[in-house]
Amino acid sequence: MRLSDTFLQRITHLLSTSAGTLVRIVETEPITEGWSARFGMSPWPWVARCAITAETGVKTTILPASVIVKARHPARHFRSEPERFHNEAVALDFLTRIESAAGPRLLAADHEEGLLILEDLGTGPALEDLLVGHDAWRAEQGLIAFATALGRMHAATVGHATSYYHLRSRFGPVDPAFDRLSILGIDIREAFRRLQEITASRLYLPPAVDVEKDVDEILRVLAEPGPFLTFSNGDSSPANCRVSDDGLRFLDFEHACFRHALLDVVALRFPFPACPCWSHIPEEIVQRALDAYKEHVVRSCPEILDPIRYTQGLTAACAAWTIVRATRLPKLEKTDEPQPMGFSRRGQLLDTIATTVACSQQSRSLQSLAGWLTDVSQALRLRWPHLPLAQPFYPAFY
């Protein structure tokens, strides 16, 4: 992000006010580290790292050597909604108030100008960098660190939904019920209706018959999470984190909300259904990560150890994600645009369906929906006969 003089003045003022002493910006640079940055998303024009120095004063505060400056997306950008900015600012403030280090510390914010100044989590790898590397042990440890951080964040935020939404309501209307029944801002019920329309309009696909009760059950489980209601950054991607010797911390809270914890946990089960850096992880490593998550969340949510509630909740969460992701089918029919790691996006959809079906078999729930998804998958495989039975592992696990 090339910062104008006016913008630099705003940042300097915010930092100086927060620190109680005059702060100067020594240097700015774009954020370029990480796998995502190397494949078409770098530099992020709305995020920059600023090296700073502080002069002494009556209220001198020890400041870090650098901070991250994040600006609200411009009006023309598809992610320009002010709600995203407010979500992130409030989420980081909320985490600080409850003494959680799940994300970067919020140093200063200007809601009118759309400007956040955040703790710099450093240039260490994101989880995705470890997964696309060549060290299986480091990749596994990174995945377990991700699960551990997720479990700790969930455990720390159980019972705090009212406090979060009270803070968030200061910057516009909030809808906690919608948060529970949406994924990345997409209404799950509306996504299912769209999926019904897609399959009904294609002769080669089986229509969604006798699955409405299962969809209603998914919505009931997510709408009434009970002890599983926890805070989420809303986008549990292996890109949205940084790994250091102190563990893993999350980034990007633009979709922050309170929702069913297992909607985040499916990031490990699929894994990562909506991120560009997608592939497979050996099952035994997935299980170790899930065990690490349970170990840390159990202190606030002992129900996570109930095998029926856990497996049925995980099935509902997987099915919700699958419904939302399956609405991409019209685009996938037109093209299977290669992904940087080489996997097929069509194959990703088929593997996503397969994961949900496997969860359904394990939990013995949502069996009508799973049966229909199986038929859809078989019909798509007939249309895409060149695809392998499953997409490959991440490079670290080759």
Explain the overall architecture.
By secondary structure, this protein is of the alpha+beta class. The protein has two domains: 5-119, Phosphorylase Kinase, domain 1 (2-Layer Sandwich), CATH 3.30.200; 127-397, Aminoglycoside 3'-phosphotransferase, Chain: A, domain 2 (Alpha-Beta Complex). The chain has 15 helices and eleven strands. Strands 1-2-3-5-4 form a five-stranded antiparallel β-sheet, with helices on both faces. Helix 3 packs across helix 6 (161-168), helix 10 (262-269) crosses helix 12 and helix 14 (345-363) runs antiparallel to helix 15. The radius of gyration is 22 Å and the shape is globular. The two termini are 37 Å apart.
Q: If you compute it from the alpha carbons, what radius of gyration comes out, rounded to the nearest whole angstrom?
A: 22 Å
CATH topology of the largest domain: Aminoglycoside 3'-phosphotransferase, Chain: A, domain 2
- Secondary structure tally: strands: 11
CATH structural class of the largest domain: Alpha Beta
The average pLDDT value, as a whole number, equals 91
Shape annotation: globular
Number of helices: 15
Estimate what percentage of residues fall within beta strands: 5-15%
Largest sheet, strands/sense/barrel? 5 strands, antiparallel
- End-to-end C-alpha gap: 37 Å
Low-confidence stretches: none
CATH architecture assignment name of the largest domain: Alpha-Beta Complex
Number of domains: 2
The spatial strand order of the largest sheet comes to 1-2-3-5-4
Structural class, please?
alpha+beta
In N-to-C order, the SSE pattern is HEHEEHEEHHHHEEHHEEEEHHHHHH
Helical content, roughly?
Answer: 40-55%
